[in-house]
Amino acid sequence: MDTHHATSHDLLHDEAYAPLPYSPLPDHPVPAGAPALGQRRPLKVCVTLSLMFLVSLVSFIRVHVTVDNDGPSMEREGRGVAQGVSEKSFLGFSGRRLSYNWTTAMLAWQRTAFHFQPEKNWMNDPDGPLFHMGWYHLFYQYNPDSAVWGNITWGHAVSRDMIHWLYLPLAMVPDRWFDLNGVWTGSATILPNGQIIMLYTGDTNDSVQVQNLAYPANLSDPLLLHWIKYENNPVMVPPAGIGSDDFRDPTTMWVGADGNWRVAVGSLVNTTGIVLVFQTTNFTDFELFDGELHGVPGTGMWECVDFYPVSINGVYGLDTSAHGPGIKHVLKASMDDNRHDYYALGEYDPMTDTWTPDDPELDVGIGLRLDYERYYASKTFYDQVKKRRILYGWISEGDIESDDLKKGWASLQSIPRTVLHDNKTGTYLLLWPIEEVESLRTNSTEFEDVLLEPGSIVPLDIGSASQLDIVAEFEVDNETLEAMVEADVIYNCSTSAGAAGRGALGPFGLLVLADDTLSELTPIYFYIAKDTDGSYKTFFCTDLSRSSLAVDDVDQRIYGSIVPALDDEKPTMRVLVDHSIVEGFSQGGRSCITTRVYPTEAIYGAARLFLFNNATGVNVTASIKIWEMASADIHPYPLDQP
Ligand code: DQQ
Q1: Ligand 1: does its nearest atom lie under 6 Å from the Cβ of 181?
Q2: Which residues contact 538 (CB under 8 A, 6 or more apart)?
Q3: For atom 9 of ligand 1, which residue has the closest CA?
Q4: How does the average pLDDT of the chain come out, rounded?
Q5: Number of other CB atoms surrounding residue 181 within 10 Å
Q6: 258, 277, 309, 396, 450 from 280: Cα distances, Å
């Protein structure tokens, strides 16, 4: 492994500010010991962001005018909604469904190198993840026929490490009356005797959502190739008062205080999202409990509920049935109304089978999110080998459906994330890419103490930047910070002008998937707001408004949230770039932002990485380490070979 080191002195110098428009400065002598930063292109470039601001403003206005002219796209109904599940595609902003003139090479670049995706066609929710006889199994919502949602079956793949994958034949297809309109989402439970119980939602021949039981035909098959659907399915039907299309996505089961097994199912009453709980002793007969595990008025239908314990001070994950002192329970639900995954920490009472949030203001659907952009229908499982809880999430496309049909595939799974209780805040979870992804790290380059003056951009000459693992730490000049009386008290990532909007203490961070001329760039950044009482808020945001020149086809919004950066913490981020996906994690995984990015210029060898500071009033110092990432090995399992 090759590691380079550079310092701010290597990158910045007196000629830091270039004239507009952006034009890299001519090359300079490279200080002894510095990396070969200038070999591929000019070395020391630091330009004002004024141009960036103007260009952004123009494109920002253009995007918003488009929305105003044509009406918000979400008013139009797309795939899934009529069938009783949430919208499955990005509908575009214009409503005109214009398609950019993509070249084959542009579309080919969008396919990822180390994220799980099927060989072709449509995928959505992760289903029934589990570990069995040496293999991690992933099932997923899959359309074998097309790159759009429909004809939903269970795709199946196995992996030794959740990074390199082998595709297996379809696990379950819609072939019985109780799932004829789709083998929808479900979860696995491994019983103490090793039996595997799979509960899933079937959309029946009459479009009623029911819960079905399936189990492996041969438990001693490590690949779990064949699945038997229980003959007398369904095992749960919509109870009285519950709509036939508001009853879906059973969780992994857990053992209650009486020794019986429980399962939770998401539902809706009026506009209140709720979780129903059933109990069973034999996995074929289920009895509905009176009342609900929990519900939150006004949040709409809860899809893909997940319910699991976390250890308050532990470093390990917990089996789903664990409860007692030192344990909190996470309740997560996917909001059908806004298609975001919300979670809350709280107390599970095993005697009443109810759950109460620690903070009612941070309740499910109104408080914290697992991720602040494109991340939905997520599901955890307990990895009994490494004693950790692992989270998968469905990453949908942020381009229009006709583009997906052109490229022949749609959607990814996130890099699996470990889930831990954040002991420092006590209110957050920490989500972090599984350690196995680090096995793909190859050449690394490190830049220490890079000074980012207000209005500067610093190119990081690391070669092509389409597959990266980046770890960055920022330090804001403390004297200026302390002296500042007030700055942007009411900041909000989504309603801000994005990375082009200049404040006293932000934005600063990274530009990923940018080209040399900055015609396309995706900023992922911090923004600090300071109140008159001396308190700070740190925001972690990403700005898609200039991520692609294909403006009519792709999502161009600005996303993000507050992330607690505690007194002894500097703003830190980790970013995984893998072609059309960028996964960002700040403060050790307290806040995550996953975006889909579709550049037309910043692709292949033209994709670049920059540091920037667009604050007006503060110097920022950055230390950053960047690894190139190898591709994962993802191909069909050689079933015909011995
Ligand atoms: N996807 C499945 C449903 C679930 C939805 C259908 C969430 O079971 O509610 O493909 O994306």
Answers
A1: no
A2: 526, 527, 528, 562, 563, 564, 565, 571
A3: 303
A4: 88
A5: 21
A6: 11, 10, 20, 35, 60
List 2, 14, 68, 125, catalytic entry: 125
**Cα within 13 Å of Cα(169), Cβ side:** 8
pLDDT of residue 642: 52
Report the top-level CATH class of 126-433: mainly beta
Establish whether residue 94 lines the binding site of ligand 1, counting it when its CB lies within 6 angstroms of any ligand atom: no
Backbone angles phi, psi at 105, to 5 degrees: -65, -40
First and final C-alpha spacing in the chain: 35
Q: What separation in angstroms does the CA of 229 have from each of 126, 217, 288, 593?
A: 19, 9, 22, 38
**pLDDT of 50 higher than 50:** no
Q: pLDDT-based confidence at 36, cuts 50/70/90?
A: very low
**Total residue length of the chain:** 642
- CB distance 590 to ligand 1 below 6 Å: no
The atom number, within ligand 1, closest to the CA of 186 reads 8
Class of residue 231 by CB neighbours under 10 A (exposed 0-12, middle 13-18, buried 19+): exposed
Q: Is 125 a catalytic residue?
A: yes
Q: Which atom of ligand 1 is nearest to the CA of 249?
A: 8
Architecture of domain 437-629: Sandwich (2.60)
Whole-model pTM: value is: 0.89
In contact, 571 and 520? CB cutoff 8 Å: no
The two three-digit tokens of residue 629, written as one number: 């990432």
Q: In the numeric block, which tokens belong to residue 72?
A: 């918000």
Q: Would you say the C-alpha torsion 105, 436, 372, 397 has a positive or negative sign?
A: positive
pLDDT score of 6: 41
Q: Which residues of 398-432 are buried (b: 16+ CB within 10 A; e: fewer)?
A: bbbbebbeebebbbbbbbbbbbbbbeeeebbbbbb
Q: Answer whether 209 contacts ligand 1 (Cβ < 6 A).
A: no
Cα separation, 544 vs 500, in Å, equals 11
Q: Residue whose CA is closest, atom 5 of ligand 1? A: 85
Say yes or no: CB of residue 125 within 6 Å of ligand 1. yes
Beta bridge partners of 573: 472, 586
Cα 419 from chain centre: 13
Residue ranges of domains in the chain: 126-433, 437-629
Phi, psi of 10 (to 5 degrees): -70, -25
Residue matched to tokens 């390199």: 164
563-591 pLDDT per residue, tens: 998 888 999 999 999 999 999 999 999 99
The closest alpha carbon to 602, from 440, 465, 441, 448, belongs to 465
Determine the Cα–Cα distance for residues 598 and 102; give it in Å rounded to an integer: 10
